[in-house]
Amino acid sequence: MIENNSREADILHEAYRRGFCDFYGRDFIVTPDVLIPRPETEMMVDAVLNLAGKSFLPGVRPAPRVLPKNPRILDVGTGSGCIAISLALEFSEAIVVASDISKEALEVAKKNAEKLGAKIEFIKSDLLDDVSADFDVVVANLPYVDPEWDWVDGKALAQEPELALYSGDGGLKLIKKLINQVVRRKIPYLILEADPCQHERIVEYAGDKGYSLVKTRGFILIFQNKKD
Ligand SMILES: C[S@@+](CC[C@H](N)C(=O)[O-])C[C@H]1O[C@@H](n2cnc3c(N)ncnc32)[C@H](O)[C@@H]1O
Fold first, then answer.
1. Of 147, 153, 156, 208, which is most buried by a Cβ count within 10 Å?
2. Residue 72 pairs with which residues in a beta bridge?
3. What tens digit of pLDDT does each residue of 210-222 get?
4. 106 lines ligand 1 (CB under 6 A)
């Protein structure tokens, strides 16, 4: 999510000007109410497909399936809906729910689901507070930018909603809160995006609560509940 030169600012500006951004091979509507989907986030979709025993790249052998045949997937902080919608379209057996605290972002996500023909339930919620169902896997690309990071190009990110970018406690406040909620619900798998410089702290925090790291790939961390 971190941009550090003006070319990146131009790319983000261009996506808002066009009103569309490519993600996982599809065009998503974007407005100033949502984050512009980033290429590194596509690996979240790959990660779920991998847990489902599905091939996500030509030449990559599918891993053994660890999710049920019709897994219940929750995308927390869905923004434009890019992760949830891609999952629903790539993985038709899955039951996909998407949530966000922003009513405006959810409106954009609903438009994208309609445009792309994805069946998704949308819920307005602060993390899991108003989400009652159980899930096999939670995916979340929550805000993780620490406002103190001096390598962040404020000009590039100024076009995007602050609510989608910044979090306190070194960028980890929301991620830690979500980990605690996922632990209480005993959700089997948790997939998070964060800057690689934050991964060690996240792995330690989740590990203390019984969630062990299965794998990291780029910005993505995959955890499994080992306790229950
Ligand atoms: C980094 S953006 C990710 C958007 C999209 N999932 C993507 O990957 O492009 C983070 C999203 O989390 C939402 N968000 C921020 N705080 C939240 C909270 N407490 N509960 C739920 N969603 C939240 C923001 O509105 C924003 O849409």
1. 156
2. 95
3. 999 999 999 999 9
4. no
